[in-house]
Design a protein that fits this description.
Blueprint: H1 3-6, E1 11-17, E2 27-33, E3 36-42, H2 55-58, H3 60-64, E4 74-76, E5 85-87, H4 90-107, E6 112-116, H5 124-137, E7 141-143, H6 149-159, E8 175-179, H7 183-186, H8 188-199, E9 203-207, H9 213-216, E10 220-222, H10 229-242, H11 248-254, E11 255-256, H12 258-265, H13 270-277, H14 281-293, E12 297-301, H15 311-325, E13 334-336, H16 340-344, E14 364-366, H17 370-373, E15 388-392, H18 396-399, H19 403-410, E16 416-421, E17 433-436, E18 445-447, E19 454-458, H20 471-481, H21 493-499, H22 503-506, H23 510-516, E20 518-520, E21 540-541, H24 563-568, E22 571-574, H25 590-596, E23 600-603, H26 605-611, E24 618-623, E25 626-634, E26 642-645, E27 681-686
Parallel strand pairs: 6-15, 7-14, 8-9, 8-12, 9-10, 11-21, 12-13, 15-16, 16-17, 22-26, 23-25
Antiparallel strand pairs: 1-2, 2-3, 4-5, 4-17, 18-19, 19-20, 22-27, 23-26, 24-25, 24-27
Helix pairs in contact: 4-20, 5-20, 6-15, 10-13, 10-14, 10-15, 13-14
Length: 688
């Protein structure tokens, strides 16, 4: 055997950042031996990650080296949706795509629509070069609403920005209310902090229609009806005022419009709130007592509760609770929904070069109504018919609501569709071209977060597999072929990363971030102890121009607003994510799919008995929009009158080639133009 064969492998470790749509944004240590990733672990030196990764991301190498990964450009060879493609070269693919887009743009560039979301949360591979390309082109803008817009805009309307307490100080809280979040599945590192607080004597309360894994481990679970969170907040406020458990000094100094809010609160005695929520008045009073008499008290609010008609108003009301009790006086008190607003003052707003629009004002397409919009004809109100879609960092055929219409739109033979992807997803199956994208292990990126306040760096660990290319390179290549001559299209990934932040304001450098892997934003520990909210006068806003005083709004679909519909479809359905997936990501990783099992509908024993449904039976879940089929699980996780359709499975893995979004609605929220996935009435029956 040669000496070369006996030589030890070349091993190195690089800093990475989890790219997925999760508040934890973990710091990763990636071990590479002879050019191949052999281990991915959480960085033990990062204060938030503390060496731990979720099951999904700890298997990220399995995703990157997956046998079914797309590694070469593909051109459609069969009907749309068939997943039939032939391999082509990059030059052929880019030349044809550029020619097709140029021809459409010559008629009206607004007929071209980018469709993207949070397949990666990186600032470089997300939108930096992509939006430069579409701004120069003059394509339609995309309203990226599908996940968090209702809650995010509500929070900004109340506090002035999407800001909150530091997640690390939850460990010091004496009361933690986990509102609309299954933290064990979707916010693991926060749950670690909550457990630390619990060991120190803190009380944990979960508010969720579903008895989640998190709710099971809290001291109390309040299982309210979907869409009634605002009513619960109002009932709690009523009790706080009645019992004198409010901080009048904090309110007078730092809350604008409390008197107008108090008049609304007066209408919501605990009995009324309890009847609306389907809980007991004692539960309303008990929550008020806990919030009003415990300091420091903290609320971890998450986005599940805002996916209903009144989600924005509900988020505004909940955000006001720590302002009424003065919880913000403590660094371990207050509320956290999103910390992304903290990064706004440090980001470079021109990273995406909106100046390339050159004064044009293209129309905006809401990504949550893509099903309807793909089926619209040209009109004065709508603008040109959509002729081309470029999809990256998203899987709309699986994740967008009312998917029967989404599928019909993507199946149009006159729609030219390009998808940048790792795998042949439900959306990629409908593409004219699938372009192989790099994974987080193969490209450079920088990240902000929405669950903590550290900037993160991701170093490429390996060279791109096959012929895969970063998103940035694809849009650079298209820009050249379409004749865009601006120098910004020549910026490489490192230059884009350097442009992402104001390093002087942060107090670090690009080089220092790269060396360490993360950098903390320079922020106070108790940001609102003395007010100073990022509003025009530094005070929390109750009565917002154009929105008024927040109130409880019943669901689009419920017995109160649509009694005839509720008579036909008497079950409310929510569709929380399956624990081992992240939205529709990781569904094709066999080891995770094996653990998850199969698409399930959780149903309470009372509702199952009334329909002759046994656990393990196949059922039909349906309403006027469509139906999907799955296995039923009679479970205490479901409250009476509510079924839980766990998502988001790829349609191709569903028993009938559909998923839960076959029955969800394109109706939008009160604030933020966001989808109402959890505002959905259905009927369930056993399959014969």
């Amino acid at each position: 055997m040669s000496a070369l064969a006996d030589s030890p492998p070349v091993v190195r470790t690089v800093h990475g950042a989890c790219p997925h749509d999760c508040p934890d944004t973990c710091a990763m240590r990636i071990t590479v031996a002879d050019g191949k990733v052999v281990r991915i672990q959480g960085d033990p030196d990062h204060g938030s990650t503390q060496g731990a990764l979720c099951t999904k991301v700890s298997r990220y190498a399995e995703r990157s080296y997956h046998a079914e990964r797309v590694l070469h450009p593909l051109k459609r060879s069969g009907p749309k949706g068939s997943g039939q493609f032939v391999r082509v070269g990059w030059d052929e693919a880019l030349a044809d795509i550029a020619a097709r887009l140029s021809a459409i743009a010559a008629r009206d560039p607004q007929a071209i629509v980018p469709y993207s979301y949070a397949g990666t949360m990186g600032l470089v591979q997300g939108e930096a070069m992509a939006q430069r390309f579409f701004h120069k082109l003059g394509a339609s803008l995309l309203d990226r609403t599908i996940c968090s817009m209702a809650g995010g805009e509500a929070l900004a309307a109340t506090y002035g920005s999407k800001v909150g307490m530091h997640v690390r100080f939850f460990a010091e809280s004496q009361l933690i209310v986990i509102w609309g979040s299954n933290s064990i599945a979707s916010n693991l590192h926060f749950w670690t902090l909550a457990q630390e607080a619990k060991r120190r004597g803190a009380k944990l309360v979960a508010i969720d229609p579903r008895r989640t894994e998190t709710a099971e481990k809290c001291h109390q679970h309040i299982a309210l009806r979907p869409g009634t969170d605002g009513a619960l907040a109002l009932g709690v406020m009523h009790e706080l005022i009645e019992r004198g458990w409010i901080d009048r000094d904090y309110i007078e100094r730092h809350v604008a419009g409390f008197d107008r809010l108090a008049r609304r609160i007066a209408e919501w005695a605990p009995e009324r709130a309890a009847a609306t929520c389907g809980i007991t008045a004692d539960e309303v009073r008990g929550l008020a007592r806990d919030l009003g008499t415990t300091q420091p008290a903290a609320i971890r609010l998450n986005y599940g509760m805002q996916r209903v008609r009144g989600g924005g108003n509900a988020a505004r009301l909940i955000a006001l609770l720590p302002c009424l009790t003065g919880a913000w006086r403590h660094r371990a008190g207050g509320l956290l929904l999103s910390s992304s607003g903290w990064f706004a003052q440090f980001k470079n707003p021109q990273l995406v070069r909106s100046d390339l629009l050159a004064g044009r004002r293209p129309r905006t397409i809401n990504m949550s109504t893509i099903g309807d919009d793909l089926l619209r004809e040209s009109s004065a109100a709508f603008g040109p018919k959509i002729e081309a879609l470029v999809v990256y960092n998203s899987n709309p055929v699986a994740v967008a609501p009312e998917s029967k219409k989404v599928v019909a739109g993507f199946a149009r033979e006159d729609l030219f569709t390009v998808v940048l992807e790792h795998f042949l997803t439900d959306t990629a199956d409908h593409a004219d071209y699938v372009l192989p994208a790099t994974t987080q292990l193969e490209h450079l990126d920088v990240h902000g977060t929405y669950g903590h306040t550290d900037i993160m760096f991701n170093e490429p660990a390996i060279v791109p597999l096959g012929e895969s290319r970063p998103n940035t390179q694809v849009f650079r290549d298209l820009a050249v072929r379409m004749g865009f001559t601006e120098t910004c299209f020549a910026d490489d990934d490192e230059e884009l990363a350097r442009q992402a932040f104001d390093w002087d304001a942060i107090g670090t450098s690009f080089e220092a971030l790269r060396e360490r892997g993360w950098a903390a934003l320079p922020l106070p520990e108790a940001p609102f102890a003395n007010g100073g909210f990022p509003t025009s006068d530094g005070r929390v806003r109750v009565d917002v121009c154009g929105l008024g005083v927040p109130e409880h709004l019943p669901n689009h679909e419920c017995a109160e607003t649509t009694p005839e519909l509720a008579a036909r479809y008497p079950l409310q359905m929510i569709s929380p994510p399956a624990r081992h997936f992240l939205n529709s990501t990781f569904v094709n990783v066999k080891s995770l799919r094996t653990v998850e099992g199969e698409p399930l509908l959780e149903i309470h024993a009372d509702d199952a008995r009334a329909r002759g449904i046994a656990s393990g039976a196949m059922v039909r879940v349906f309403n006027d929009r469509g139906e999907y089929r799955c296995k039923a699980e009679v479970s205490e996780r479901a409250r009476p009158g509510v079924v839980n359709g766990l998502g988001v499975w790829w349609r191709k893995f569903g028993p009938a080639g559909t998923n839960v979004n076959e029955v969800t609605s394109q109706a939008l929220t009160d604030i933020g133009r966001a989808p109402t996935f959890y505002d959905c009435l259905v009927q369930v029956e056993p399959l014969q």
